[in-house]
Amino acid sequence: MLGGVMEALREALTSPWLHWLGLLFLCSAYLQGPFDKLRDFRGAVAEMRHFGLRPALPFAAFTIVFELTASALVLTGWYRWAGALGLGRFTVLANFMADRFWGLQKPERSQVANSFFEHWGLTGGFLLVAWHDLGGRDVF
Fold it and tell me: Hey, where are the domains in the chain?
């Protein structure tokens, strides 16, 4: 009986739809962000200026196109590894620009530090997607 339950659980957890749902969740911030930027493009340009990116308008436009394109690669499986590595690199760069907790005072420092390390978790997820897509095998 336990073997049947375990087999059913394994089948459910290794199903293609769950795999795709996991990829969608991983990309969700990179899909939501561009839609917000498109709805308020002036705000997106202001955000680029806030982070010192000049000229701000092309940076805002590039960010929108990049996040949507890289997410599409991950979700469709076409050059999934490239989309995943791109989003991982983007996350690392943005993390060091936006979540510089080490220069803040408490209580803001703790909140920004949490965000900083959550972004490392996203980056790890993207590295695992690329590793798997390129044929990585379990090593443990």
Answer: 2-133
